[in-house]
Backbone:
């Protein structure tokens, strides 16, 4: 999960059975771990996939956002299908941000919506977005394989999130998300999910309820072990430290190589001018 090894499907014929439609920071890591246990298959936790897999996977979702923004439904569905193929369940963004497309692609999928206090949720989201708001974020990430598309992805989901609040002009950055967003965005997202999913296919729950409602909803036995209690915020913070360390290493290598090149060039020039 977040900061770990991303689940990569080996059997593309498997289809999504469960969509954990809660927005980021609503226990998506815990939900992903629980679904992986109950469904015995690869679960697409969006945050992990975007951060741990290669540039192409992040780029795939960015293209899906752009196709949707352009009104190209067929291309949007094609890209979302490609990004979710082989997974038995999905959680977190980006899949939760493509609920109309997910329900069209997987009409029989069961949907789980984890509830969380909107104000506490917003405090967490604002902290996360604040890390990606600085203007230099894109420049720093540009030479990092696997993360160079992250700023573009942040822009796309920020724009999409703000549209939930009816804000559509000049609202395409993490900085604008912090400035103009609020707890009402979570409520708008949850209402959107409710409007898209037939009642018999939707479970609303809180993580504190544990295995019982989820297992009953999915028709599977309750595991003889505690419900996963991963901390989304701590997981993100721990991974942020890893990101910063890798960024430091890459830029140190760039500056070191540049320094060697300049030094070598200087001595070559000095030798030739003797």
Residues:
């Amino acid at each position: 999960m977040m900061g770990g090894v991303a689940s990569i499907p080996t059997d593309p014929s498997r289809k999504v059975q469960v969509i954990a439609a809660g927005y980021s920071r609503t226990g998506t890591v815990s939900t992903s771990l629980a679904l992986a246990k109950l469904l015995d298959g690869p679960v697409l936790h969006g945050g992990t996939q975007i951060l741990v897999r290669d540039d192409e996977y992040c780029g795939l979702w960015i293209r899906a956002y752009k196709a949707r923004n352009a009104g190209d439904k067929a291309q949007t569905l094609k890209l979302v299908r490609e990004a979710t193929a082989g997974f038995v369940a999905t959680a977190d963004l980006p899949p939760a941000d493509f609920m109309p497309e997910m329900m069209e692609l997987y009409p029989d999928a069961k949907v789980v919506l984890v509830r969380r206090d909107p104000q506490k949720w917003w405090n967490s989201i604002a902290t996360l977005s604040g890390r990606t708001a600085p203007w230099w974020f894109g420049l720093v990430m540009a030479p990092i394989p696997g993360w160079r598309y992250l700023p573009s992805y942040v822009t796309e989901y920020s724009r999409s999130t703000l549209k939930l609040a009816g804000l559509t002009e000049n609202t395409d950055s993490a900085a604008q998300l912090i400035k103009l967003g609020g707890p009402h965005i979570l409520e708008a997202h949850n209402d959107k999910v409710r409007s898209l999913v037939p009642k018999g296919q939707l479970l609303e729950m809180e993580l504190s309820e544990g295995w019982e409602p989820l297992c009953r909803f999915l028709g599977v036995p309750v595991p003889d072990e505690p419900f996963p209690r991963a901390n989304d915020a701590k997981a993100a913070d721990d991974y942020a430290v890893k990101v910063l360390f890798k960024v430091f290493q890459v830029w140190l290598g760039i500056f070191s190589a540049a320094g060697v090149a300049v030094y070598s060039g200087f001595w070559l020039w000095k030798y030739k001018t003797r």
About this structure: Residues 18-267 form a domain with the Rossmann fold fold (CATH 3.40.50.300). The longest strand covers residues 110-114.
